[in-house]
Predict the 3D structure of the following.
Amino acid sequence: MSGVVHTSTAELFLVGQDASNMMGNPAGVCYPTSTAEVQEAVRWARSKGMAFIARGAGTGLAGGAIPTAGSLVICLTKMNNIRSVDVHRRAAWVEPGVLNADLSRHTSRHGLHFAPDPSSQQSCTIGGNVANNSGGPHCLSEGVTSAHILALEVVLPSGEVCILDAENSLFDLRGAFIGSEGMFGIATAIEVRLVQNPPHVSTMVVGFASVHEGAMAVSAIIASGIIPSALEMMDAPITRAVEEYVHAGFPLDAAAMLIVEIDGLEHSVSDGTRQVKDIVLRFGATSFKVAQSAAERALIWKGRKTAFGAIARIQPNYYLHDTVVPRKKLAEVLSQVSAIATEEQLQVMNVFHAGDGNLHPILMFDKRVEGVMDRVHRAGSEIVRVSLEAGGVLSGEHGIGLEKRDFMRWMFTENDLLFQQKLRAAFDPEGISNPHKVLPRGSGCADASSIPPGSWM
Ligand SMILES: Cc1cc2nc3c(=O)[nH]c(=O)nc-3n(C[C@H](O)[C@H](O)[C@H](O)COP(=O)(O)OP(=O)(O)OC[C@H]3O[C@@H](n4cnc5c(N)ncnc54)[C@H](O)[C@@H]3O)c2cc1C
């Protein structure tokens, strides 16, 4: 085994980080190509008294893939086969390293796709989606990853292999594993649910003179009983940045814009489009446009999903936050976020899943400026605080990882945490699978491992 563990400085540097602003210090990395090789890697790490950590593409934003000092990174990117597609059952068995967008590209010949579509879908893996229970713009009507996983093959921290599914066991351990951020073992094969590509789609771009009016329109659309397939909001600064980059025809004079998408049968799509138009006009929309072709629709989504690339033209670094607030509090919390950024002298832009109240404030900065990271972290804590005070939750889709581990007590009682620790210990009694994540410091089993504390900052 030791022969296939890579230890070059360059490789360890690369797998020591993810898309968060943190850095870890692993002892080695291996790239298994089969379940048996993952088992061998886990057993080898155990025999050496090392922790191990599953890694997909490293696009996680909460530091979930940051390795503890001295740990073994088990990188799943070479396990990237789509093993079978069952068109009749609308299901497929895939390996964890399959890229999200590749799966839907592969199944499009059958008129099917994998519904969760994170903006990072060109590069993130299905294994990472499962571990983080990822979402995306089109999860509003279809549900996030947990609604699209039928079964999992898992290598447990003991080295044993088991199948977790909802149908053939007493407890739904599949549900427990999804969102466990690499702490319950390693998913080595995943049975996904596929959904039919919609026969008709209407994609609308709506401009508003204020964020408040845009946010009120979001609540009114959902309250009317329409569940769009996607309902996204972008504020003026990010709209300008994206428009200069992608030229998607976004309204540059708007203080906020919505992307509203409705899909289904032809008559329900045209009815829905008419209803959305009535509602947004009632809430003061200053512009309303419907994509006239598949190419126009694709350009709108390219604009939305490459927003993070667009901001790289403005500042070299960004910190992308993720909290959820009740829809009716969107406008209020957004103005608090803006005040927090001003207080810390940071630029902020907002592009987010408005339909489910999932905020994504992006703080932009240049990390070469002395002291800037302190201001970024202070602003981040404040954003979490105001979101929770508004009745929201810590994370909508990026997970807890290291980033929000120490905020867990702001939301959960000691009893809640104890229960979560016990569940973790049932899968991983020694705490060797991605230790020191999610569960806050000083909370029993999070510290139970013999692994030395990480040096991830
Ligand atoms: C520009 C950008 C946009 C993004 N947009 C979205 C978005 O719209 N929605 C969203 O939800 N997220 C988004 N993300 C976050 C990220 O892409 C997702 O969390 C994604 O699912 C992570 O996948 P990954 O393969 O990169 O996983 P990694 O970052 O490699 O790992 C993430 C976690 O999963 C664990 N893990 C990975 N593979 C396995 C496995 N096989 N078994 C067990 N555990 C495993 C790791 O240990 C780690 O804890 C975005 C990120 C970026 C950079």
In short: The chain is about 35% helix and 20% strand. Residues 315-389 form a domain with the Alpha-Beta Plaits fold (CATH 3.30.70.2740). The longest strand covers residues 200-208. Confidence is low (pLDDT under 50) at residues 445-457.
